[in-house]
Structure formats: C-alpha cells, structure tokens
Amino acid sequence: MSVHKEIKKMTTRTLQEMKLAGEKIAMLTAYDYSMARILDEAGIDVLLVGDSASNVMAGHETTLPITLDQMIYHAQSVVRGVKRALVVVDLPFGSYQGNSKRALESSIRIMKESGAHAVKLEGGAEVVDSVKRILTAGIPVMGHLGLTPQSIYKFGTYTVRAKEEFEAIKLKADARILEKAGCFSLVLEKIPALLATEVSQSILIPTIGIGAGSGVDGQVLVSHDMLGLNNGFHPRFLRRYLDLHNEIKGAVQKYCTEIKSGDFPNSKEQY
Fold first, then answer.
1. Which domains does the chain have, with CATH numbers?
2. What gap in Å lies between CA 113 and CA 122, rounded to an integer?
3. Helices 100-114 and 128-136 meet at what angle, rounded to 10?
C-alpha cells in the first residue's frame, strides 16, 4: 500500500512561525504554470506573482503598464502549478493608489478569479487605508517599502532608498504602521542592510529582503534574474544560480543546425 505524504501548505501563519523560530523564508517570482510547478516542487516557501511580469514577460521598461486583468491571468496560471507554496499577487499600478474602495475591489477580483492566497501593495502611511479595507474582506496583505518600482517617476531612479536619515525614519515608521494595520509580512527593497536589520528586529511580522542584506527574515529575487534568463541586469544584490540565457541559446542553435543538416529527426524519432 503506497502512503501519500501529506504536503504541508504554506500559510501566512507558517511564515510568522518561521520568523519566531529564526528560520529563513525563501521567495521567488513566478508568472506561468510550468515555472511555478518547478519552483514549488523545489521547495520554495512563497511565490510572488510580481508586476515585474511587465518587464520580464512583456518587455516593458517599467512595471506601470501591466493591468489588473493581466495580473489575474498570470496568477491563475501560477496557482494551477502550486501544491505547497503561498502565492502572493502584486496589485498593479492604478488598482489601489488613492482609492481604498478600488483597492478592495481589485483584491477581491484577484482572490476570487485566481485562487491566490494574498495580495501585495507598495507604500507606507499613504496606503494604510487601502490595507485596512482589504483586510476587512479577510484578504491577507503583504507590504512593500524601500524602493517601490511603481513610484519610479517620483524618484526618477532605481538607486538605493533610505540612505538619508529622514527617509530612514519614515521607513521605520511606515513599517510599524503597516504592521499595526494588519500586514502579515513586508518586502524591503534596496535599502541599507543595517536599516533593514533594524526594521526586522523592531516588528513582529516577517520581512523579506531584496538588496536589503542578510538581517531580514527571508529573501526574494526575480526568478528570471536568478536563473540567468535576463543577462543584461547586474545589480550587486543578484546572485545568478544558472546562465539559462546562453544554455537555451546554445540548445536552439544546435536544434537549427541539426534540422538544416538533416540530422533531426533521425530514424528512431519517427513513426
């Protein structure tokens, strides 16, 4: 008789327990079924259906153009590939800013139409009304502070945030505000490592860093960057675990050559 080992699903509570136990959280982005399935089988804790799909899937320069409908499509694809990971979906630009009613409606659509487990939005005190309103529907919210890519035109650059003391003070205050509002976790992007450590120690909810040093409770990278599918992006915080760009290119070149030489298909590869 085969015994099926029960897969323990990741929840927002699991992440909280991991922080308390000092166990680090591993998070990556996913945008499609096939990749989500591999990442989930590999044991990733959290999958973020990021608005970075705007860059890596659609080729836009910023995350701003992606729509709520497109985010839902990506989220549906990812959820179908997942058995264990917690799936968090970015609320895209324009679907929540300055309008808590719209934020709630957008979040309800994501949860209802994709089957994802939580939403993520950027900003601190200025989005707290949206956070609270989304939570009234029982939808878990992950916050995002530091470099907030949807505000690229406000800052004008993707450089490290919160190096100035006034910005660091605001970031620390925002972290506490988001925790108090009920966020289950925070992403801290591209901020000084010391500040990220300080924030992580000052709040009870888990922090996930990207370019925020090792003193946070977990790490997130864009999977296309980490796997080397994007070869033109070299920030200091990125560690490449594969060079898929050249691996795939080489395989396709070989495929083309073997078709043209008549080597593929051979006698064993036909009916």
1. 12-240 (3.20.20.60), 243-271 (no CATH)
2. 22
3. 50
Residues in the chain: 271
Environment class of residue 66 by beta-carbon count within 10 Å: exposed (0-12), middle (13-18) or buried (19+)? Answer: buried
Q: Torsion-angle region of residue 150: left (phi > 0), alpha (psi -120 to 50) or beta?
A: alpha
**Could you read off the pLDDT of 134-153 as tens digits, one per residue?**
999 999 999 999 999 988 88
Q: What three-state secondary structure class fits 175?
A: helix
Longest dimension (CA), the chain: 71
CA–CA dist 47, 28 (Å, integer): 5
What is the C-alpha R_g of the chain? Answer: 20
Distances (CA, A) of 11 to 25, 84, 111, 118: 12, 9, 15, 10
> Is the overall model pTM greater than 0.90, yes or no?
yes
pLDDT score, position 3? 53
Active site residue ranges: 189
**DSSP code, position 170:** H
SS3 16: helix
Q: Are 48 and 90 in contact (CB under 8 A)?
A: yes
Q: Does the N-terminal peptide bond of residue 192 adopt cis geometry, omega within 30 degrees of 0?
A: no
- CA separation, residue 171 to residues 45, 51, 93, 192, 253 (Å): 26, 22, 21, 12, 48
